[in-house]
Amino acid sequence: MFEPPVQRLIDEFARLPGIGRKSAQRLTFHILNIEDVDASRLSDAILDMKKKIRLCAQCFNLTAEELCSVCADLRRDPTVLCVVERAQDIAVIEGTNQFRGRYHVLGGSISPIEGIGPDELRIRELLGRLDHEGVTEVIVATNPTVEGDMTAMYIARAIKPLGITVSRLASGLPVGGDLDYADEVTLGRALSGRQEM
Amino acid sequence: MHLAWLRLSGFRNYDSLEIEPDIGVNILVGPNGAGKTNILEAIAYGSKLRSFRSSPDESLVSTNAEAAVLRLGIERAAGEGRIEIELPRNGRRRVLFNGKRPQRSSVLAAEFPVVAFLPDDLGIVKGGPAGRRELLDELASQLTPTTGADIDQFKKVLRQRNSLLKQAGRSVDVMTLDVWDERLATFGARVLLHRLTLLTAMAPVLRESYATVSSANGVLGWRYDSSWAAGCTPNTPQSEAESLLREALLRRRERDMDMRSTSVGPHRDEPTFLLDDRLTRNQASQGEQRSVALSMRLAAYYLLEERHGRPPVLLLDDVFSELDIERADGVMALMPRGQVFVSSAREDEVPVGGRRWSVSGGTVT
After folding, report:
1. Complex ipTM, two decimals?
2. Where does the record locate the signal sequence feature (chain A) (predicted)?
């Protein structure tokens, strides 16, 4: 047990994901040794972010404004919507520079075990946007897990009757890798999702 | 493939243990309660990621440790492999294979196949169908990694569907249930076809194994009873089996909503073993049942050896005291083939020579 103020910070760090007891101690003792201004900068950054960041009114991406930078960008194609589980996923897809449409963040995937059904996700909001924004194509980019696949199927069923094209991200081989390094399940999916040349 | 070294800490009665077993026969001798079976259990855990005694993970952690750590070095055709498992008293299990998290828990079953003969194997024959389903699914995963993935996925989907029914019952959202049914049908059909394929491949091996362990006449065969997949064979197209399960789920839907669980599917099917046309479960003598149990393990061993081109690691937990000479011969036929671990309270009960390890009070020498 350390002095109460030290222990308090250790406990707070240890609550964070991926941080164990030892890392929490290391971080705490690092902060103990830095200048006061550096410590204030860190605590200000945390508070400032918590104060300013909210969810985009349209797609539920993170933003400091009313609309996120993607939704506010008039050059983006409003007829194509990419549906993701979490806001972090948007940054990854943006990194590809290949997608010029807009996003919709569901906030998770359907998982009855965790008590998450369609109503706990932003699926109703998604359906509302389709009509309102004149969307003609939806790309479902949920994770390739049992729950992500399920969520994708659910969305496809809900959207298909509206005459909107629905597609799912292909899953397959990592680029630049050797075939014999791919695991069998990935390879199996790549095989069943093969493309004609 | 064989176990090159084993290191344990905080596992059962071992504070810390390090052994480098022989690549042939290893005989663990020691009094009852000395910890012989614990070593076999640790080796099997490295392959199956669960206790062969069906003990929960927490109970594997020794009373004066915060976590049990198992490390296994395996020698295989593709080079050395390292399995590391940490079982904390509280919190999540951590598994690493060659320093990385395996993509599925069934990866190790195929990388490090282990066949264990256990004193209560008789339960597979005498007990309910759950034990036989598990035996088949486990063996199918050891034979082909993709099969293990299908079985894992089926179980996940089933757990989710049951959880949905449990929460909502009659007020369940029909479209959500539809989608889970779709997935359950896809993976359920695969599990069925994997089992039927395995049973078909196993049949001749099973017949032969039974003939070697039993002098009594009788042909050991199997039957697969299923309320939804009657008439299916290993050659039934996947799509056909899928529609059968989809329809069965729909027929039972009302009932499932009331019962709040899934009443039809491969998890309710009943694989049975037959001696001629008698059910081994309740129409065979105790001696015959023992031979049948032994034959199933032997068949598993031979199938794995054939598939991987190398024999699996064999674990014999105190089996010789239960076997008469005739049946022991069937087990003995496996002895020179690959790496073996035998546990016994009395060395003179083990009808084979090998590296002798003396086990007592948490140490092995």
Report:
1. 0.72
2. none
